[in-house]
Automatic annotation (TrEMBL):
GO terms for molecular function: DNA binding; DNA-directed DNA polymerase activity; exonuclease activity. Keywords: DNA replication, Exonuclease, Hydrolase, Nuclease. GO terms for biological process: DNA-templated DNA replication; double-strand break repair. This is DNA-directed DNA polymerase. It catalyses: DNA(n) + a 2'-deoxyribonucleoside 5'-triphosphate = DNA(n+1) + diphosphate. Residues 302-511 form the DNA-directed DNA polymerase family A palm domain.
DNA sequence: CGTGAACGCGCC
DNA sequence: AGGGCGCGTTCACG
């Protein structure tokens, strides 16, 4: 939908592509709509903050095709230039001052007058940002501008996903809870299955019924030790190594207790309305460029409850997952031809096995994850030398990123997102340890801190570039679905969920194939956008299902 | 008493 | 003893 916007006595006059008009109240309208970049392209709205301005437009039945999010782009540029973000962008929700030629009455300048005075008008900020993006030194010309566009497109998608919501069957969710936990208990009470498990743990530990505070880690550890079980913490992985009849019911208790507290009845009451879960996504919420979420735990949706994510009657969920995204990103970043060969099929880990580097898919996976996260022990460390022999360039890439971090340097993603510098404290510690007369413990602490920073930068390059690929993918899917046809967002195929390397489209059943094609084509485009014609593929698996739990 | 760190665990 | 998160609970502290 192409929108034109003009000032109007009652607010802002918005004209859609069919000539229909609507007046949007001034209080609900963004500071600036800008930049007609040519007749052939739709307008790009330039505003301080998509998350602030877009939702009211969506509620008014309007959609914005392209935008430039000044707050998100400021964060990217500031990071690349190694400086702090300007004040308006540091605030969680950022309005901008009005330009002088527009009516100040549209906005409440009294709220924060000094901030308003300090903040350059949007048009000016936009021009400055475009210049900064253009002069940024990145591997490929225009990379940072591409990142700015992708980040902004992601912000639009995030607002739209919150607006339409994820189709959620509260009824199925309830049923699942009752089955696992028992009927909903009164407030403060334990569901019957949970109570039974707690009692069984007490029995097996030989303590008086009702005397064990099972939810208190210190007390639980004490009780376990009292029963002769040698544990230092109550972590599941540590419990799993023990042989004792109390362990099985305890582990089950922990799993169900988690379900209850994280995604139980309270969660359902708070987050699901009218058959939709409406999480708030936070684009750029993670330093690496990944999204975060705010409330509802959208990015930690446990597998246990995914059967409650259910398409509307006559609709389907088209769920796409980028297969082994991060190792493929590393392959492209490092231009490792041998690993590209291993990734030619749909299963890169199997390809690594077939190359002869390792013996099993599990080893390949563990080894690659260890290489990308900086694992130094266990199985992953053991297979690393074997991977290094066959894929020297890929391994060298992450090793170099780690060394840079250990030296206190920053690293960059493919499109130029820059890792934050280690803090002043970190640098002081390194200087102290390097100084004459430094003690052994000081040197050890500094070394530990340096290695920690190395693990961070090692992972930043890969995770951050994967996030960029995912943004480009999402933007491409959105554009394809968009151009398919006009009409209200919720009446045509639309994105409903994003999870780092997964996208979900809710679509009328008859248009499922169209959505699947969009997901596949946009993935191929994203690879070309980031890496040109490098011989690296980014296959996606696409499943058309009724419930999220039926995918993969 | 309220606040915040620490824990533990869910996701990628 | 592995990178990035969010969130609910417990517990120490002011």
């Amino acid at each position: 939908m192409h929108l034109a916007v003009d000032r109007h006595p009652g607010g802002m006059l918005v004209t859609d592509h069919r000539g229909g008009t609507e007046v949007v109240p001034a209080a609900a309208f963004p500071a600036y709509v800008v930049a007609q970049e040519g007749r052939s392209t739709p307008p790009r709205w330039v505003w301080s903050d998509t998350a602030l301005w877009y939702p009211p437009l969506l509620r008014a039945g309007l959609r914005v095709e392209r935008c430039h999010d000044l707050r998100l782009v400021e964060a990217i540029i500031a990071g690349a230039e190694g400086r702090a973000v300007r004040s308006f962008a540091a605030r969680p929700r950022a309005a901008l001052a009005m330009p002088e030629r527009q009516s100040a009455a549209l906005f409440d300048l009294e709220a924060e007058p000094r901030e308003a005075e300090r903040t350059p008008p949007a048009a000016e900020l936009h021009a400055e940002q475009l210049a900064a993006l253009a002069r940024a030194s990145t591997r490929a010309p225009g990379a940072l501008a591409l990142l700015a566009a992708a980040e902004s497109a992601g912000a639009l998608a995030a607002a739209e996903m919150t607006f339409t919501g994820l189709p959620w069957s509260a009824e199925d969710h309830e049923r699942l809870l009752v089955e696992a936990l028992g009927p909903r208990p009164a407030a403060g009470e334990r569901p019957v299955h949970l109570a039974a498990l707690a009692a069984e743990v007490e029995r097996q530990l030989g303590v008086r019924p009702g005397s064990l505070a099972i939810d208190s880690p210190p007390e639980l550890v004490a009780a376990l030790r009292g029963a002769g079980i040698d544990v230092a913490t109550t972590r599941s992985w540590e419990l799993q190594r023990q042989r004792h009849p109390a362990i099985a019911p305890l582990l089950q208790y922990k799993t169900l207790s988690r379900l209850m507290t994280a995604n139980g009845w309270n969660w359902l009451d708070e987050w699901v309305r009218d058959g939709r879960f409406r999480p708030t996504f936070v684009p750029g919420g993670v330093v690496t460029g990944r999204w975060a979420s705010d409330g509802g735990g959208a990015l930690q949706l446990p597998r246990q409850v995914r059967s409650a994510v259910r398409a509307d009657e006559g609709w389907v969920l088209v769920v796409a997952d980028a297969a082994q995204l991060e190792p493929r990103i590393l392959t492209a970043l490092s231009q490792d031809a041998e690993m590209a060969r291993a990734g030619a099929g749909v299963d890169l880990y199997q390809g690594i096995v077939d190359s002869g580097a390792v013996d099993s898919r599990e080893q390949a996976k563990l080894g690659m994850l260890g290489a990308m996260y900086g694992g130094t022990t266990g199985q992953s460390a053991r297979v690393l030398p074997r991977l290094q022999r066959v894929f020297p360039r890929a391994i060298a890439y992450v090793e170099e990123a780690a060394r840079a971090g250990e030296r206190g340097e920053t690293v960059r993603t493919r499109l130029g997102r820059t890792s934050p510098s280690p803090g002043e404290e970190w640098r002081e510690r390194q200087l102290l340890a390097a100084a004459e007369g430094a003690g052994e413990s000081e040197r050890r602490d500094a070394r530990t801190a340096a290695r920690g920073q190395g693990r961070f930068t090692r992972n930043f390059a890969v995770q951050g570039t994967a996030a960029e690929w995912a943004l480009a993918w999402m933007a491409g899917v959105r554009r394809r679905l968009w151009s398919a046809e006009g009409g209200p967002l919720a009446r045509q195929p639309h994105l409903v969920f994003f999870l780092h390397d997964e996208l979900m489209v809710h679509a009328p059943a008859a248009r499922a194939e169209e959505a699947a094609t969009a997901l596949r084509e946009a993935a191929a485009d994203a690879g070309r956008l980031l890496f040109g014609d490098a011989p690296v593929t980014f296959p996606v698996t696409v499943a058309t299902v009724q419930r999220y739990s039926e995918a993969k």
